[in-house]
Predict the structure of Histidinol-phosphate aminotransferase.
Amino acid sequence: MSQYWSDLVHTLQPYVPGEQPRHVELTKLNTNENPYPPSPRVRAVLDDAAVDALRLYPDPDSGALKAALAARAGLAPENVFIGNGSDDVLALAFMAFFKQPEPLRFPDLTYGFYPVYCKLFGIASRIVPLNAAFEVDPADYAAESGPIVLPNPNAPTGRALPLEQLERLLAANRERVVLIDEAYVDFGAESAVALLAEHPQLLVVQTFSKSRSLAGLRVGFAYGSAELIAGLERVKDSFNSYPLDRLAQAGALAALEDEDYFRDCIARVMATREWTVAELTRRGFAVLPSQTNFVLARVPNGRARALFEQLREVGVLVRYFDRPRLHEHLRISIGTDAEMRRLIEEIDRLLD
Amino acid sequence: MSQYWSDLVHTLQPYVPGEQPRHVELTKLNTNENPYPPSPRVRAVLDDAAVDALRLYPDPDSGALKAALAARAGLAPENVFIGNGSDDVLALAFMAFFKQPEPLRFPDLTYGFYPVYCKLFGIASRIVPLNAAFEVDPADYAAESGPIVLPNPNAPTGRALPLEQLERLLAANRERVVLIDEAYVDFGAESAVALLAEHPQLLVVQTFSKSRSLAGLRVGFAYGSAELIAGLERVKDSFNSYPLDRLAQAGALAALEDEDYFRDCIARVMATREWTVAELTRRGFAVLPSQTNFVLARVPNGRARALFEQLREVGVLVRYFDRPRLHEHLRISIGTDAEMRRLIEEIDRLLD
């Protein structure tokens, strides 16, 4: 509390960032980072010329990156929005499209920032529970007309809706924006980008943080109709006009252009995921089918908290959610083969 | 206009970014960028390890950079706030400290974003005209008790208040935050950091964009009392929790540590500035004393717009403000010696 603060500041709760340990000896399977480095092309593009050019302001529009993203999706630059990580894109989308009388709908188990943004921006919400198999059922979103935000695949469940079910959901919701958050889509799910031509209410948000191994660079983006992108640009230019810095623009573009590396990297993560699912299942974990770079697994006998703490003691970090429907599960990011072997070895030791 | 937009979006005006030409043959003296590249240490720190680490999220607190900034100013990390460029820091400070009943005071001729932020955040303001010599007079800020934002040196005038006058202003304004925006302070003015110990209401904002040649990296920061910094952190974590990316943190830290290069670089800019002032003065321009990397010069016969347009035609970009008190002036960024020679040659040709 301070006499200098606006009233606003007094009403805000200080935020405590998630655990980001700095000890390299840890096996870090708790924040869904990619275990592999970004494309070598990212290194190559950060050359003398790029560093010398840092004396100049960046392109406020991230024009080259925007054009490349548009081309990759068969869209025009006016269908692409770029932000400082997909959290930035999401926050701007909440302001641009969800701040309105009808409540925003999203699942009970989903990305934790959605309720946070609703609270911050004063957006009404209605929680739609996942079914017993932790799946989104499009029928649950058919009755009302408010906007929708839905990760596909969902987090922390890892489950994805196939395209025809997404299409059902969109066909029943044409009046307000439907935001599909595809942070994890590259690890085996189908992108809703294919549905953009038929659905001007659809906004598809993606990120370079997961499948492109660039969490440290903060680059996210959205695909949508020109009118949705124009709405986002208006809010961005008014509340947060900070462009991507030059190295972020250059690095993201280089990563985007290296399709072979991208394919290889996600194939490796998916192969390691399937190995991990098999090993966990063999040990009595109930693992949800995942199309992401993490798995949600019910711990044998439901003793998730105990296992979480024991793993942590030996330096293996996974994610535990102390909340209904999830407190018997652990969310485990897919690391390298060596990291996952270590996880399984520690589990064998601890659950012995 | 769109049925999908929030009411909010309809009320916002699309923003048109300033001219950022991409043709290298231009002589670009219109955006106050540094003509010299950043410290070679920035290049050195963007190595294989830094690029590999991009797969991991950045430190949300920019801890290493914060510690280095604190040490340089003889302060503690809790006295330092870091943002995505000083515009980000300013926007958060406006929300944290200026959104309150008493109007915010600032000069009639000053940084153009202040009135923009007031409008966006619904902040009442009162304009305090500069005196006839384009100087801030602390006496003009003594009568009321609202908060103040003041660049020192001021832009676009280039004039700076000496420390004892800043102290007078602070002594008369202890109830609300006084924000001193020191974007250009390193080019010859005195920093208000020396006054922080006595003034918990003082917030000093600086940037890596000008004197550190890192406009392309988007790094700004503020020094202040722990209670002001805590207020900024609260707003940032709530509305815009985007951390600096890893390369921005590493690059800024490397630049900060290269004190010799920094000193050399600003000495060169200041020497070129003095040469430019002398040459312009000799040609009948009335040049305000500048402690920045630009000069504000009244064009002979006041024909600033015509000269601006003529210079532009030959590829020399300077800044013209079509507004009262400034429409007979040009703001000219200080480039390399060669760039300033070209400017003078073109002026000689055009005003012949």
